[in-house]
Amino acid sequence: MEINDFLVLHQADARNTTLNAGNNTLVFDIPSTYYTNQRSSVCSLSLVDFGFVEDGTDNYLLVYYDNIGQNQFNSSNNGVYLGHAVCRFDANSTYQTPDVEKVEVLVNARPTTISIKVLAEGNSPLGAAITNAFFVLKFKYGNAVDTSELLLEQYTPTL
Fold it and tell me: Strands (DSSP E) along the chain, which ranges?
C-alpha cells in the first residue's frame, strides 16, 4: 500500500487571501509538525483537485506550483505547471472542469511554505477576482535508493 501526504489548502487560510489581477499568488504556511522525518527525501507532487468561484471573465485558469520543481521546463518561467480548469458559465452558476493529477513533478520533500499561482489563458493576469478557491496537493514519496538507480540507468555518459 502506498501512503501519500495530502494538503488541502483554502484561499481563506493563505497569508494574503486576495486572488485577482493585482495578486495571482497565494502563499500557505505548513506546520513542520505535519510531516514526519521518516519519509523519503524523494518526492513528487500532483494537483489532485481544486475549485473556485469566478465571475466569468476568464475562459480557463492555469495553476502553478511556485516552489522548485526538478523535472519540468516552463518556457514562461512562471512556476511549475500543475493543471488547469476550463470555466463554463450560465446565467446562474460558475463551475469548472478540473484537469488534474496528469502532471507529477519532482519537488523538494516536506515544504513548510507553499506558493500557488493562478493565471488566466495565455499566462495573463486574472480578469476577475477569484474567491473560495481550494487546492488539494498530493505528495508521493519514493525510495531514494530506487530513484537513484533509475536515474543512473537513464544517464547517458558523453565524452
Answer: 5-10, 25-29, 42-54, 60-65, 80-89, 94-99, 105-108, 113-120, 130-142
